[in-house]
Amino acid sequence: MTNKKFDELFNENRYKEEANKHNEFLYSVLGIIAFTLALSCLGFEHPQRPAMLCLAIILPIYLRAFRSFPSTLYALRSLAKETKDLEVIEAVKYLENKYHGIKSLLLESFVLFAGLSFYLCVLIYPEILAWFKK
What is the pTM of this model? Predict the structure, then answer.
């Protein structure tokens, strides 16, 4: 391909570092905080109430995760829209599947999914987790 902008943007090693930094933030901050808050909410008689209050902490962290998303992927997506070049579109699909697909996120960010799932269970279905309190 002769697109100079694409050649500047598509560097998989650099992108891998950006993606790892983003996954690290999701894993170490959002996943652990969600799990810890959910576990502490179980100490209350009605865990849904404090879990709803904890949304004031979880949501800003979740929104911060979007701002830390790799900027290279945003740039490649906009380049793909502008040029409609198949090589750019394929590169975007490749990066999304390899570094941000469900399989890679489950393997790389298991704590994120476990923490958020546990938090959502406490928030939506606290009766399922009643056996924790016994």
Answer: 0.72
